[in-house]
Please model this.
Amino acid sequence: MKIGYPCINLTLNCRSSRTFRLENYSEERLIETIENNLNCLAKILEFNYNNNILFFRITSDLIPFASHPIMKFGW
Model:
């Protein structure tokens, strides 16, 4: 059996689950947050691959407000 871990890589200084409060919503902030999360996810997946870690649970916070009615673009 291969071993993995869920959501948070404690070795890298990068989190793919950053979010913010709905009251602070702006499309610019949303895009910036999503870009940051996806860039961090890429770094985490590269780290995992280089360390032969084959199981990793991606956080549901990767795309903030993905299922909220405020999300109007990209879907």
Observations:
- The radius of gyration is 14 Å.
- The mean pLDDT is 89.
- The beta strands are 5-6, 56-57.
